[in-house]
């Protein structure tokens, strides 16, 4: 009697696993962020592998349409590893993105990128066009 | 001396990409399929459609700024019809290879997408017949970096360290450690995968555009796009130096100040758009 029950239990377990397995895959497919283009400024979009404890979620993480982790949640080590197991393409955390750095910093980076091009008129002309382009982005 | 790797050994290793343990099964299948001398549209369509994740990634790409059919292409067969077999083959490769490497070479994906966007804009301006093919050249031009990292992870770390320390480009640093560079490696694979000659040459000569024989325009476009994307500062995490533009390639394109501005605006718009491919 006991033996038969155990057998059934195994069968059930296998069945549940099979079912749960596909559900999990399904859930994984449905987990995604809903980014809002207007709000992208001031957020950093990063790969889940780059998440660290202490970072603050700037966009909720959803499972289907249910919120798994809300906006403003401070990540712990455990949350980071849970998110990393979710197979997401990216996550949004608070912080300055490149565009949000001060203009002086952006221009300093531009100088740095062009640091080997001093002798070339062509490259200096291009640098000047990029410099104006960057300044316009801040106006 | 012991640091350099013999070129024939290197080529042999690179060309047996299927044997790499780190290359996932789908990529092995893709590689095998791309080698087929006569790949039919139906075959390619069926293969991609059989993988929903791949399908959605490719559709996101073709509907992004890099290919300029915003939200108009809804199926793989439609994409192949509009863009042609070679473009979709290139996208398939780009999407699967770069996705794989997204976490290992920071910024390379963004850099490659940026080049695809810039190359398409310039190709259209220059009235190239198939601007999407040039865009694919932009997307795949640095594919050799990915392959080098996969095959020589430790050596490539040294290459990157050397480039950073000495303020030289990755391309220059690669030469010190290997007999070949990522442009050579990329072209070996492009040939193996039977890409058209303009794609092969654009990859092979994107750092030395003067050497291109049969695809000078495409190669010049990719060469200049590469520099402009660097100049704009997109995806610079892995290589932050702006490479010097070759005056002959520049002269061939005859871009005006306004053209360069337009490319920069295009890049800005694409990078800050909400499309998931970025
Ligand atoms: Fe390159
Ligand atoms: Fe490049």
Tags for this model:
heterodimer, A: 139 residues, mainly alpha, Molybdopterin biosynthesis moea protein, domain 2, two-stranded antiparallel ribbon, 4 strands, B: 278 residues, Hypothetical protein af1432, 16 helices, binds fe (ii) ion
Secondary-structure map with pairings?
The complex is a heterodimer of chains A (139) and B (278).
Chain A: H1 2-30, E1 43-46, E2 61-63, E3 66-69, H2 77-84, E4 91-94, H3 103-113, H4 121-137
Antiparallel strand pairs in A: 1-4, 2-3
Helix pairs in contact in A: 3-4
Chain B: H1 7-15, H2 25-35, H3 41-49, H4 52-62, H5 76-83, H6 85-101, H7 108-125, H8 131-140, H9 143-151, H10 153-166, H11 170-177, H12 182-192, H13 197-204, H14 216-232, H15 247-253, H16 257-272
The complex binds fe (ii) ion (2 copies).
What does this structure look like?
The complex is a heterodimer of chains A (139) and B (278). By secondary structure, chain A is mostly helical. Chain A folds into three domains: 31 residues; 58 residues, Alpha-Beta Complex (Molybdopterin biosynthesis moea protein, domain 2); 36 residues, no CATH class. In chain A, the strands form two sheets. In chain A, strands 1-4 form a two-stranded antiparallel ribbon. In chain A, a hairpin with a 2-residue loop joins β2 and β3. In chain A, α3 runs antiparallel to α4. The N terminus of chain A is likely disordered. Helices cover 66% and strands 0% of the residues of chain B. Chain B has 278 residues and is mostly helical. Chain B has a single domain, classed as Hypothetical protein af1432, CATH 1.10.3210. Chain B is globular. The termini of chain B are far apart. Classes of the chains: A mainly alpha (139), B mainly alpha (278). The interface between A and B is medium-sized, with 30 and 28 residues. One fe (ii) ion binds next to loops of chain B.
């Amino acid at each position: 009697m006991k033996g038969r029950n155990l057998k059934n239990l195994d069968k059930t377990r296998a069945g549940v696993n099979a079912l749960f397995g596909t559900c999990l895959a399904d859930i994984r497919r449905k987990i995604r962020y809903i980014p809002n283009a207007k709000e992208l400024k001031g957020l950093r979009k990063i790969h889940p592998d780059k998440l660290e404890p202490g970072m603050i979620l700037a966009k909720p993480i959803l499972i289907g349409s249910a919120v798994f982790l809300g906006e403003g949640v401070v990540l712990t080590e455990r949350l980071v590893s849970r998110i990393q197991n979710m197979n997401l393409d990216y996550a949004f955390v608070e912080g300055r993105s490149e565009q949000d750095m001060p203009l002086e910093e952006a221009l300093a980076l531009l100088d740095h990128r062009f640091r080997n091009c001093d002798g070339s008129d062509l490259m200096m002309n291009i640098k000047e066009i990029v410099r104006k382009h960057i300044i316009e982005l801040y106006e | 001396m012991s640091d350099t790797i013999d070129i024939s050994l290197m080529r042999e290793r690179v060309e047996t990409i299927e044997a790499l343990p780190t290359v996932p099964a789908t990529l092995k299948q893709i590689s095998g399929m791309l080698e087929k001398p006569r790949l039919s549209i139906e075959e390619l369509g069926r293969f991609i459609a059989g993988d929903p994740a791949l399908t959605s990634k490719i559709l996101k790409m073709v509907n992004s700024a890099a290919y300029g059919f915003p939200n108009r292409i809804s199926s793989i067969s439609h994409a192949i019809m509009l863009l042609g077999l070679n473009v979709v083959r290139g996208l398939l490769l780009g999407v699967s290879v770069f996705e794989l490497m997204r976490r290992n070479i920071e910024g390379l994906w963004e850099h490659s997408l940026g080049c695809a966007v810039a190359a398409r804009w310039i190709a259209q301006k220059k009235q190239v017949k198939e601007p999407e093919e040039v865009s694919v050249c932009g997307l795949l031009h640095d594919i050799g970096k990915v392959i080098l990292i996969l095959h020589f992870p430790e050596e490539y770390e040294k290459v990157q360290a050397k480039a950073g320390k000495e303020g030289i480009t990755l391309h220059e640093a690669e030469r010190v450690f290997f007999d070949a560079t990522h442009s050579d490696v990329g072209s070996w694979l492009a040939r193996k995968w039977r890409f058209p000659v303009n794609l092969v040459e654009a990859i092979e000569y994107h750092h030395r555009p003067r050497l291109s024989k049969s695809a000078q325009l495409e190669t010049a476009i990719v060469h200049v796009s590469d520099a402009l994307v660097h100049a704009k500062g997109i995806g610079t995490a892995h290589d932050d130096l702006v490479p010097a533009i070759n005056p002959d390639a520049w002269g061939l394109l005859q871009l005006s100040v306004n053209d360069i501005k337009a490319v920069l605006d295009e890049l800005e718009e694409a990078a800050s758009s909400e499309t998931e491919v970025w």
